[in-house]
Amino acid sequence: MDMAIALILSQDGITNGAIYALLALALVLVFAVTRVIFIQQGEFVAYGALTLAMMQSGVLPATVWLLVAMGALVTVLDGGLALKAGQGRRAAGVAGWNLGYPLALAAVVGGLAVDALPLALQVLLTLAIVVPMGPMMYRLMYQPIASAPVLVLLIVSVALHIAMVGLGLLFFGAEGQRTPAFSEFSLELGPLMVSAQTLWVVAVSVLLIVALYQFFGRTLYGKALRATAINRVGAQLMGISPTLAGKLTFFLAAFIGALSGVLIAPITTIYYDTGFLIGLKGFVAAIIGGLASYPLAAAGALAVGLLEAFASFWASAYKEVIVFTLIIPVLLWRSLTSHHVEEEE
Amino acid sequence: MRADRLVLGAFVALLLLVPAILSPYYVTLLNYIGLYAMVALGLVLLTGVGGLTSFGQAAFVGLGAYTTAALTTATDLPGWLAWAGASPWLTLLVGLLLTAAVAVLIGSLTLKLSGHFLPLGTIAWGISLYFLFGTMESLGGHTGISGIPAIALFGWTLDEGGEIYYLIWAFLLVAMLTTHNLLDSREGRAIRALKGGRVMAEAMGVDTSRSRMVIFVIAALLACASGWLYAHMQRFVNPTPFGVHIGIEYLFMAVVGGAGYVWGAIVGAGVITVLKQWLQNWLPSLLGATGNFETIVFGLLMVLVLHRAREGLWPILRKLVPVRTVRRTLDADAEPLPRRTLPKAGELILEAKEVTRRFGGLVANNNMSLEVRAGEILALIGPNGAGKSTMFNQISGVDTPTSGEVLFLGKPVAGHDSREIARMGMSRTFQHVKLLPTMSVLENVAIGAHLRSNKGVLSSAWRLDRAEEARILKEAARQIERVGLAEHMYEEAGSLALGQQRILEIARALCADPCLLLLDEPAAGLRFKEKEALGELLKKLRAEGMATLIVEHDMDFVMSLVDRVVVMEFGQKIAEGLPDEIQQNPAVLEAYLGGVE
Question: Is the Cβ pair B198, A344 closer than 8 Å?
Answer without folding.
Answer: yes
